[in-house]
Design goal:
Elements (H helix, E strand, L loop, with lengths): L7 E5 L4 H12 L3 E5 L9 H11 L3 E4 L7 H6 L1 H21 L4 E7 L26 H21 L3 E6 L1 E3 L12 H15 L3 E4 L5 E2 L1 E3 H14 L7 E3 L5 E2 H12 L5 E4 L8 E2 L6 H4 L7 H14 L1 H6 L2
Parallel strand pairs: 1-2, 1-3, 3-4, 4-5, 5-10, 6-9, 7-12, 8-13
Antiparallel strand pairs: 8-11
Helix pairs in contact: 1-7, 2-4, 4-5, 6-8, 8-10
Length: 316
């Protein structure tokens, strides 16, 4: 197990939703978090990354940066999503081996898994099919992180691993409707509908099953994975092991916001992948956490959002 106390850990996307939670967790454990800020370092520019690493001299790296959004964002910008995420990941692995970083952990998402209708998404099935068409560009780009971990380990003996994280939500998420995902979009819609006494339109049928994890729980699991997980040959799933329907999620948000109007399901809009539940059997061998229940996490997120609405709505 890696002892991170007094160790420098570079976190790409370190001022973002997940990255800021990871940095806080590192600091709470006595480590020194170095958030890589997009306004200071362009991850699409290899020289920029190497210069930053030369100055900061990190011991370890967690790659949490990404360019993504919900179904509509993926529909509008698949080429940009593919290019940005792929180049960022490849540049980071090259820079880490060049600067002799001791270990790099990259974060993938469940959209990288094949859409085969499996009951559980297991690590050994990671390459057995294509991601769902609605998020394929993002999924394929994230798969390059797993390939990079294997390749740099094999050629350069870089200690590189990946984790595959389920759908996250919580404070500091993006609530900008162009970029946000399902939880953020729904919370914003229902909070605004309460204020305006309106109705809310929800995409699809509400039938798809999704797994949701509170961001602080994910950050704890990711830092533990940096400390403990050493297998470059396949990702390590990080999730709660439980899923709920989108319709159930809406009911939790209705309750948390106090919404009393009408909910309309627009079945002309796509549902997306019907089921994405990560098998967390292997995770339990490395990581010890007690995830917060979705209902309670939604209440905390709604409370934070109402207190930070202007900031949250404007985030890219």
């Amino acid at each position: 197990m890696i002892n991170i106390k007094n160790k420098k850990i570079l976190v790409t996307g370190g001022t973002g939703f997940l990255g800021s939670a990871i940095c806080k967790n590192i600091e709470d454990k006595g480590g020194i978090a170095i958030p890589l800020k997009s306004e200071e370092v362009n991850l699409l520019n290899l020289e920029s990354i190497i210069q930053f690493m030369a100055a900061s001299k990190p011991d370890y790296c967690i790659h949490a940066a990404g360019y993504n959004g919900g179904i509509e964002f993926n529909r509008m910008y698949p080429a940009d999503i593919l290019h940005s995420n792929t180049i960022m990941g490849l540049n980071l692995h090259y820079a880490c081996q060049y600067m002799n970083v001791k270990k790099v952990l990259s974060i993938m998402t469940s959209c990288a898994y094949p859409d085969t209708g499996m009951e559980f998404l297991k690590e050994e099935t990671f390459w057995e099919g294509l991601p769902n068409k609605t998020i394929r560009a993002h999924g394929i780009a994230k798969r390059t992180l797993q390939t990079a971990a294997e390749s740099y380990n094999e050629q350069y003996e870089l200690n590189a691993v990946t984790v595959c994280v389920t759908n996250l939500y919580g404070p500091k998420d993006t609530f900008n409707l162009v970029r946000t995902k399902v939880v953020g979009a729904l919370i914003r819609k229902f909070v605004e509908a309460v204020n305006e006494n309106g109705s809310v339109d929800c995409w699809g049928t509400g039938a798809p099953m999704r797994e949701f994890m509170y961001v602080d729980d994910a950050a704890e699991a990711i830092v533990q994975a940096l400390q403990k997980y050493e297998d470059p040959s396949q990702p390590l799933n990080i999730g709660t092991g439980k899923d709920i329907s989108i319709k159930q999620l809406v009911e939790y948000i209705v309750e948390a916001t106090g919404f009393s109007g009408e909910v309309n399901w627009d079945t002309d809009k796509p549902d997306g992948q019907m089921k994405k539940l990560l098998d967390n059997t292997r995770m339990s061998s490395y990581i010890k956490i007690s995830p917060i229940e979705v209902k309670e996490g939604i209440k905390k997120t709604v409370k934070w959002y109402r207190g930070n609405k202007e900031y949250a709505d404007s985030r890219k």
